[in-house]
Write a structure and sequence with these properties.
This protein has helices at 2-11, 26-34, 50-62, 77-85, 139-143, 174-182, 205-214, 228-234, 246-252, 266-274, 289-305, 321-328, 343-350, 353-358, 367-379, 423-438, 452-460, and strands spanning 18-21, 38-41, 67-71, 89-93, 106-109, 128-130, 161-165, 193-198, 218-223, 237-241, 255-260, 279-283, 333-337, 383-390, 393-402, 408-414, 442-448, 464-466, 473-479. It is an alpha/beta fold and 482 residues long. The strands form four sheets. A seven-stranded mixed β-sheet has the order 13-14-15-16-17-19-18, sandwiched between helices. Helix 3 (50-62) packs parallel to helix 4. It starts with a helix and ends with a strand.
Length: 482
């Protein structure tokens, strides 16, 4: 799932992504195809072996792919060096520092404890992509962003909505244990609405159905759920595992109680509980009904008395982690949608003397008028505004406005301190790729004849020059293939 997130971010940069694996269930192969991601089989003896590295590097060569991303814990120094020897640049995605000497170009660890790990051999901090700033969330989470107005108000006498998700197989039937705990009348007095997310490999379906039918709570079992953002939007709180799915419910702003169901989840669990981001239910192998009952009693009481705050964890997981990683593997520049807080930045860029001189209208822009215009642009269905980021600093903007013919008119500018670095060209590539992901537009650009730098950006990217309405401007058009 996190490789799908990274592939989506790479596609938004105008690139192509392929997924290679030794084994891949057909359901996931179909999911990849729906995302426009080709899938390939690796014929190797053991994952992470030199044989595996050679097969992977050979496939990358055949696909003309100059980046290899290896996600897992078996891609040691020998594997990394073998891929590097084949002239492929390599990133390794991991959840802990398992290698005695890293030989890759980048290491990616989206977990909070990663910032305290050494990753010996990776010298540059720009090659260590560590912490939740790099959490790899799929595009559907960003597209289904939850706002306060979307949160249900609730009705008097109804209990909170609780989502329970404990992995695809749940061999120890922790889900069943939780349902039995929730039946304890002295600890959970309200009638809950519960959704159980049950994986196809879960062998306890019959037991869970019987528990749900006998329960005093309203319990719904859902199998093989693919639309997780909708589940997070439905719920008031969640009981889950302390793994990487925590970044999903944090992005949605959910309150959560978490269990450690695998040893590699312990560092995430410890951090989230210590920071009071989640309620800790302990390790599943040390399950204690009485302790779980007490913890859940307090947790559910909190759900009943506190309103949901969708943005409360955005300072930790802002949704742009995949864009940051993809940019680090490429030019370093990435786009995010413009926010209300960007109004001053857009104003300063618009009134830059060079920008004003090269604009179709050269008068200085009034602050009050700008604020009204900016708010209208953010709310308009006929406008798309983006900010370009490099090294965590805004370096430019690109804007698309739909005209009466349905074409998107392009306008961009680069911050003064970032000029002369090719960022204008990157803005056009990234901006049109983002637009292509949402629609199939044609683009039009109007450029003052004196603005040679902008004209050259369009020409170098293959835009067509068309007959201008007068001798003061140049017109360029690009139509993206269907």
């Amino acid at each position: 799932m996190r490789m799908i997130a990274l592939a989506q971010a790479w596609q938004l940069r105008g690139g192509m992504a392929h997924l290679a694996s030794m084994e891949l269930p057909e359901r996931l192969r179909e999911r990849l195809a729906d995302e426009g991601i080709a899938s390939h089989s690796i014929d190797a003896d053991t994952q992470g072996s030199k044989h595996d590295a050679a097969a992977t590097a050979s496939l990358a060569t055949d696909l003309l792919a100059n980046r290899v991303i290896a996600d897992g814990y078996r891609f040691g120094a020998d594997y990394q060096q073998a891929v590097q020897t084949a002239d492929r640049r390599l990133a390794v995605v991991t959840d802990y520092d398992y290698c005695s000497g890293w030989k890759c170009d980048w290491v990616v660890n989206q977990n909070p404890h990663a910032v305290d790990e050494n990753y010996e051999g990776i010298e540059s901090k720009n090659r260590r992509l560590l912490g939740t700033r790099f959490a790899l969330l799929r595009r559907e989470f960003l597209d289904a962003d939850v706002h306060p107005a979307d949160i249900r108000s609730g009705k008097a006498g109804t209990g909170p909505r609780l989502l329970i998700t404990l992995g695809g197989s749940d061999p120890d039937n922790l889900t069943g244990r939780l349902l039995r705990v929730l039946e304890h009348p002295s600890d959970v007095t309200e009638r809950l609405e519960v959704r159980l997310l049950v994986g196809a490999a879960n062998p306890h379906g019959t037991d869970l159905q019987e528990l749900a039918q006998r329960s005093r709570h309203r319990i719904e079992l859902l199998t093989n759920v693919t639309d997780m953002p909708a589940q997070y939007a439905w719920a008031d709180g969640l009981i889950g595992a302390g793994g990487s799915s925590c970044w999903e419910w944090m992005y949605a702003g959910l309150a959560a109680a978490i269990l450690v169901i695998a040893d590699n989840q312990q560092p995430i669990y410890d951090h989230l509980v210590e920071q009071q981001i989640a309620v800790g239910l302990g390790q599943s192998k040390h399950w204690n009904d009485r302790r779980i009952q007490t913890k859940l009693s307090h947790f559910l009481e909190t759900l009943s008395t506190r309103a949901r705050e969708p943005g409360r964890f955005r300072n930790r997981v802002d949704g742009f982690g995949a864009a940051r990683v993809a940019a680090a593997l490429d030019s370093g520049v990435w786009l995010r949608p413009a926010l209300d807080s960007d109004v001053r930045q857009y104003f300063d860029w618009a009134n830059d003397p060079i920008v004003r001189r090269q604009s179709l209208t050269t008068e200085t822009i009034n602050w009050s008028a700008h604020c009204d215009w900016f708010e209208g642009q953010l709310r308009s269905a006929d406008a798309r505004l983006y900010v370009a980021i490099s090294d965590d600093r805004p370096v430019g903007q690109i804007r698309f406005n739909r005209d009466t013919d349905g074409q998107w008119v392009v306008s961009f500018s680069v911050a003064e301190e970032a000029r002369g670095k090719g960022i204008g060209k990157q803005l056009l590539v990234l901006g049109t790729s983002h637009m292509r992901a949402a629609t199939n537009p044609s683009f039009l650009a109007t450029v003052r004849r004196e603005n040679i730098a902008s004209a050259n950006c369009f020409l170098r990217l293959g835009w067509s020059s068309i007959t201008p309405p007068n001798d003061q401007v140049m017109l360029f058009r690009q139509t993206l293939p269907q």
